[in-house]
Amino acid sequence: MTETTIPELATSPQAPGTLHTAERVRARLTDFSPAERRVAEAVLRDPFGIIHLSVSELAAIACTSPATVIRFCVSLGLRGFQELKITLASESIPSARRVLGDIVPGDGVAEITLKVLDGTARAVGQAAQTLDLSVLEAIAVQVVGARRVLFGAVGTSAPLALDTAYRLTQIGIDASFALDVHTQHVSARMLRPGDVFFAISHTGSTFETLATARAAKLSGATTVALTSFSHSPLTDVADFSLIAGSAETAYRVESMTSRIVHFAVLDALFVTLALRTSTSSAHLAMTEDVLIEHRI
Length: 296
Known about the structure:
- The protein folds into two domains: 19-93, Arc Repressor Mutant, subunit A (Orthogonal Bundle), CATH 1.10.10; 114-292, Rossmann fold (3-Layer(aba) Sandwich), CATH 3.40.50.10490.
- It is built from 15 helices and five strands.
- α8 crosses α14 (256-276).
- It has helices at 19-27, 34-45, 47-50, 55-61, 66-75, 81-92, 95-100, 109-130, 133-144, 158-170, 181-189, 207-219, 233-237, 256-276, 280-292; strands at residues 149-152, 175-176, 196-200, 222-227, 240-243.
- The protein has a five-stranded parallel beta sheet with strand order 2-1-3-4-5, with helices on both faces.
- The protein is α/β, with parallel strands linked by helices.
């Protein structure tokens, strides 16, 4: 068998700091299993490019499984794939660019505000062009016909799930979301055919959301996902996956832009559902009547 040749480390003006992690990987090559070695080779070929991939996408490139990618990361002393991406990003991208994007030191409030808003507008516009509307249509059909809709999300995706569940309740759809992940998991397992489980996750690889989605799948519920990556463990579980992301969200940690894009997609879904739910007007009127009591 011909020995695999490890390509020279990819270097570019954009990735001046990748030597540290890449050299750690190169030094450990003989310690990895054959499958983990393929992951290592993929990292060495393009360390900067790894930060734009999901765990499933890297697994596909390395002809292995997401679990092997995770084992590879753990063997490097990392807690998982997300930490590998963060580490590579911190070594590849100047800190100012990671946080500020096109903003440069010296920009005033006006420049910063305009650049942030422009970047967000571009991300939303990109989502409008790339969103699979047939999937959005199919999800709307499932939700309108569901007995119950349960949302699952953690971290910065949780507020989106909480808001959307509340808004669906306003139009007469039995929707709920619990902030506690154990409650989410148990509730998902209690679903049954005819119910919908709706997961929201930027990376599509959060352990708690994955566990809850798998429990919902096991219960017989229809599983739906909103995420930023087309290939991830979550999209492998979901019956219907809405993909809405941008290049910017691939490397900024906990990016606000990805949540704004997801919020916009959820808003489009809400309006669609409001127009298709026969009792939505009556329920919205009741909501307004209740809220009047809380306003001066």
